[in-house]
Amino acid sequence: MGDRGRLVIPLELRQHAGLTEGTALILVETDTGIVVMTRTQAREHLRRQLAGTDLVAELLADRRRAADAEDAA
């Protein structure tokens, strides 16, 4: 960590990861530490986590349950 709060990434790691000056990085705090990734990596990670999930169906089911609870009240 630099004196101005800047994160210093060693050259070899930057080259291996394809990081160049100006590459936007996202830092995510997890239970096990801080994860650093590019926007593209973050987007792909999120897609993998959501794969097989039908968010629309889950939302509709939640709305139906809420409507049923209101009708029952």
Any overview of this molecule?
There is one protein chain. This protein has 73 residues and is an alpha+beta fold. The protein has one domain (11-72). Helices cover 51% and strands 16% of the residues. The protein contains three helices and two strands. The protein has helices at 11-17, 39-50, 55-72; strands spanning 25-30, 33-38. The protein has a two-stranded antiparallel ribbon with strand order 1-2. Strand 1 (25-30) and strand 2 form a beta hairpin. The longest helix is centred in the C-terminal third of the chain and has 18 residues, at 55-72. The chain is elongated, with a radius of gyration of 20 Å. The mean pLDDT is 91.
Strand content: 15-25%
From the spread of the alpha carbons, the general shape counts as elongated
Determine the number of helices (DSSP H or I, runs of at least 4 residues). 3
Largest sheet: 2 strands, antiparallel
What's this model, at a glance?
The protein is α+β, with helices and mostly antiparallel strands.
Question: Could you give the topology of this structure?
Answer:
Layout: H1 11-17, E1 25-30, E2 33-38, H2 39-50, H3 55-72
Antiparallel strand pairs: 1-2
